[in-house]
Amino acid sequence: LSRLKRGERWGERGNIKERKRRRKRRRRRRRRRRRRRRRRRREEEEEEEEEEEEEEEEEEGGGGGGGEEEEEEEEEEEEEEEEEEEGGGGGGGGGGGGGGGGGGGRRRRRRRRRRRRRRRRRRRRREEEEEEEEEEEEEEEEEEEEEEEEEEEEEK
Question: What is the pTM (predicted TM-score) of this model?
Fold first, then answer.
């Protein structure tokens, strides 16, 4: 066995060391490929999101203060719901200035709602993609384990 391991003689089992090396190489290649694929996918998604955001800001007409914090948005959401119950209480004062009169407030509210919906959609999409990635990884790991078991049986 030690001779086979050293690779002096290629017996029935083939060269164990060489096989080990090949297995390592294969695993390394697989890992690299997977990492590259993931990185590429992530970069593409980020680019798409940035493009979407830019398009949406153009649609909104300069995007009224896009980067507002989530907490603020939630508070605003509650205020808006109260306002709507009161019958649109005088076009929602405050909140990013501009847009004087009743119409402005409504527009602002709509824009906020749109932004919120978009954030939720994006979050959901990201979570789904992460789940898919995890499933793929698990499948690949299972395949690797099966291959290893087969190779071990071959060696015996």
Answer: 0.30
